[in-house]
Design a protein that fits this description.
The complex is a heterodimer of chains A (207) and B (391). Chain A has helices at residues 10-21, 27-30, 55-61, 71-77, 118-127, 143-147, 161-165, 188-191, 193-206, and strands spanning 2-7, 37-39, 45-50, 66-70, 82-86, 92-98, 111-115, 132-136, 152-157, 169-178, 180-184. With 207 residues, chain A is α/β, with parallel strands linked by helices. Chain A contains 9 helices and 11 strands. The two termini of chain A are 25 Å apart. In chain A, the strands form 2 sheets. A 6-stranded mixed beta sheet of chain A has the order 2-3-1-4-11-5, sandwiched between helices. Helix content of chain B is 38%, strand content 21%. Chain B has helices at residues 15-34, 48-52, 80-90, 132-149, 161-168, 175-186, 190-199, 204-212, 221-225, 232-251, 312-321, 342-354, 367-375; strands at residues 38-39, 45-47, 65-67, 73-76, 97-106, 118-127, 154-160, 217-218, 257-260, 273-279, 287-291, 305-311, 333-337, 359-361, 380-384, 387-390. In chain B, a hairpin with a 2-residue loop joins strand 15 (380-384) and strand 16 (387-390). Chain B is elongated. Classes of the chains: A alpha/beta (207), B alpha+beta (391). The A-B interface holds A 59-63, 80-84, 86, 184-192 and B 111, 113-114, 153, 155, 157, 187-189, 191, 214, 217, 258, 260, 278-280, 282-285.
Chain lengths: 207, 391
């Protein structure tokens, strides 16, 4: 039996497609249901559908053996788990973005940064020796610089179309190559043979 | 207005849970004593400098601090092995010894969940001994202690710090890069380890050896699969693990052990073999330990040693999930006194407790009190001037 923590939403659907290719019966995930715990018909797999940023929490605690989470989430959560495969899906980058005409703001001694990656932003700017004010938000981050709530944002950028539609642009790419990763609980890897077998199959599938 | 809350990361242990904890503690204490270990207790308050000025210093953000009356900074014991190492080095006649303790340690930054900031541990330290048999007996004893506590289906995951250290020795990697590679290898994140190594211009040999690490876990066969670099330390580590495996197999522990050469924990005082006990029901280690031959050097004496600590709260959670918590011992009886016959009741209670029965003395007197106890399902002895009578 393997329990998966999967993100609800787009990453979750892409994860399900990948697991399907690796021989995991994911038909339970295709049902239109509001259930949060799903089980495959053969009883070999269980799925928890959680908020993307909660995937590492479930895996670290061992409630889920395996999870699929974006590298952005892993950087932010910084949990004690094994990060075993780059699944190469959901590619994006973590960027500082803002009004392209106001690049001068970047040198502002008290830069106001709106982000949902509070820990990562703190670390990134602290490593550069910059003191910033963090404005923690949970969505529509792009609105912050447009309305003057912040000077810039620190967020994931996939196509850049939301930025463009709001008159913003990437000012600096901080982490490139943010993709989905297969994360594994440290104990499950050693005590659940089904987990090692799955990892081997997934490694082949993405190669 | 009384302030009733607790700070985050600490807990009161209520009677039901505390009873289980004490029963497990009693089992372990019995085991430690039977196997020739002596108890030790270190002070909970120590000087900040003790832990901040040693080579294996405890990060200051992890220590609970307060100020002494003379202005000196004090900390709550951040690590019991460090305390015992200090005792062994500083107090004459302590080492060599096999010691055990039940002790709290405090960690300001524990993450929550099953990691509290006040951590109650049972542990042993084998001081002043070295060699592969010393390691083997420590690992075997760890297995026996967990069995004694009632745990089932666990494995001891064994590694050796010398292998990774040896691989990196002479690689010319900066301290920063080496630490980054360690963290990535420990997380089995080969991709990022490779990125750092390539950026640092590591040669292909080193690259291949380090990138093999995340996959080097499993049975004793990983010891044969491990690449053997020129480095003497890395070769010695593999030879040591092979000898250790040989001994443990002969001693009858084959089914309890596995190996992981990619376990390279952060900032650790361990110098040789390291091990953790893993159980499926819990996502984290219930026991961790290893060999720390050079730790006491920081306190002024060279005392090779090996030891381990069991997180008792984690052990309790694992036992609960396995449906294996110790059973409560029921009361044999409750003694209730008739009004005016208190001394009869008390003497009977004293006598039975002395005979090894589990008996409670009811503070309320009279037949109504006796009936209330009876209604709770207890065996009730009612004490009257002319003797005891079961109700």
């Amino acid at each position: 039996m393997i329990y998966f923590a999967l993100a609800k939403g787009r990453l979750g659907s892409e994860s399900a497609a990948l697991l399907d290719r690796c021989g995991v019966d994911v038909s339970a995930l295709k049902e239109d249901t509001r259930k949060l715990v799903l089980k495959s018909a053969d009883g070999k797999y269980g799925f928890f559908l959680v908020k993307p940023s909660d995937v590492p929490i479930y895996v670290e605690a061992g409630v889920a053996d395996v999870g699929i989470a974006g590298k952005d989430t892993l950087l932010e959560e910084n949990r004690d788990l094994y990060e075993m495969l780059d699944l190469k899906i959901g590619a994006c980058s973590l960027c500082i973005a803002g009004d392209p005409a106001r690049r001068d703001l970047l040198t502002n001694p008290h830069l106001r940064v709106a982000t949902k990656y509070v820990n990562t932003a703190k670390r990134v700017f602290a490593e550069r020796g910059e003191e910033i004010e963090i404005i923690p938000l949970h969505g529509s981050i792009e609105l912050a610089p447009v309305t003057g709530l912040s000077d810039v944002i620190f967020d994931v950028v996939q196509t850049g179309s939301t930025l463009k539609a709001n008159g913003l642009a990437v000012l600096e790419e901080v982490y490139a190559g943010i993709t989905a990763r297969l994360v594994v609980n440290k104990v499950s890897l050693k005590t659940n043979p089904a987990v090692t077998a799955l990892i081997a199959r997934m490694k082949e599938a993405i190669a | 207005m009384t302030y009733r809350k607790l700070p985050s990361g600490v807990q009161d242990i209520l009677p039901d849970e505390c009873r289980c904890l004490m029963q497990i503690k009693a089992r372990l204490q019995h085991k430690f004593t039977a196997c020739g270990f002596e108890p030790v207790a270190s002070a909970a308050l120590e000087y900040y400098d003790t832990y901040s000025e040693i080579k294996n210093r405890v990060p200051q953000e992890r220590m609970f601090k307060c100020t002494d009356t003379d202005g000196k900074l004090l900390v709550l014991r951040p690590d019991t092995t460090l305390s015992i190492s200090r005792i062994a080095a500083a107090k004459p006649g302590v080492s060599p010894a096999r010691l055990y303790y039940f002790s709290d340690k405090w960690d300001m930054q524990s993450a929550g969940g099953i990691s509290n900031r006040e951590i109650y541990q049972a542990g042993v330290e084998c001081l002043g001994e070295e060699g592969v048999f010393s390691d083997a007996q420590a690992i075997a004893f760890a297995v026996e202690c967990l069995k004694e506590a009632g745990l089932k289906n666990f494995v001891l995951d064994i590694g050796h710090v010398g292998y990774f250290k040896g691989l990196l020795e002479g690689s010319g990697l900066s301290e920063e890069d080496a630490e980054a590679v360690r963290a990535y290898v420990n997380a089995k994140d080969g991709l990022n380890a490779e990125r750092i190594l390539r950026r640092a211009g590591a040669d292909e040999n080193l690259l291949n050896n380090v990138l093999a690490l995340p996959a080097l876990f499993g049975g004793a066969e990983v010891l044969d699969a491990a690449p053997l670099p020129e480095n003497e330390g890395a070769r010695a580590a593999i030879a040591h693990l092979k000898a250790l495996n040989g001994l443990l197999v002969k001693m009858g522990y084959e089914k309890y052990i596995c190996f992981d050469l990619g376990t390279v924990r952060k900032l650790s005082y361990y110098s040789g073999v390291v091990f953790t006990a893993l159980v499926k029901e819990l996502g984290a280690a219930v026991l961790s330990g290893g060999r720390y031959d050079n730790l006491a050097d920081d306190f002024g004496a060279h005392i090779p040693a090996v030891g381990f600590a069991i997180g008792l709260k984690r052990l309790l959670i694992a036992l609960e999930r396995q449906g294996n918590l110790p059973e409560a011992r029921p009361l044999d009886c409750v003694v209730v006194s008739e009004e005016g016959a208190e001394e009869v009741a008390y003497r009977a209670f004293q006598r039975m407790a002395g005979e090894g029965k589990r008996v409670r003395l009811c503070a309320a007197c009279g037949i109504e009190a006796a009936k209330r106890e009876k209604a709770k399902g207890q065996t009730v002895l009612f004490a009257q001037r002319d003797g005891l009578k079961e109700i």
